[in-house]
Design a protein that fits this description.
The protein has about 80 residues and is an alpha+beta fold. The chain contains one helix and four strands; from the N terminus they run ββαββ. The longest helix has 20 residues. The mean pLDDT is about 85.
């Protein structure tokens, strides 16, 4: 597993590899993220060679201008 991302204030053409990430979230937000990750895991298991990536679309989390985007990518790609 590897982590990638972009800095908020810098314009970058491609993501940089990150040494660590920190999730600042409440229990409701963490639960929704956990469910999303479990869904991604199940989908990759079923469609390992066809599943590319998926964007987290929160249902209960307020999304605003500074809400970061969470993307899960298949390690095969």
């Amino acid at each position: 597993m590897r982590f990638f991302g972009y800095e908020r204030r810098k314009k970058q053409n491609k993501p940089i590899e990150l040494e660590e990430i920190t999730l600042r979230a409440n229990s409701k937000e963490l639960g929704e993220i956990a469910n999303f990750l479990l869904e991604c895991s199940a989908q990759i298991k079923r469609n390992k060679f066809c599943w590319d990536h998926r964007h987290f679309k929160p249902k209960k989390i307020k999304v605003g201008k500074y809400t970061p985007e969470l993307i899960v990518s298949n390690s095969l790609y």
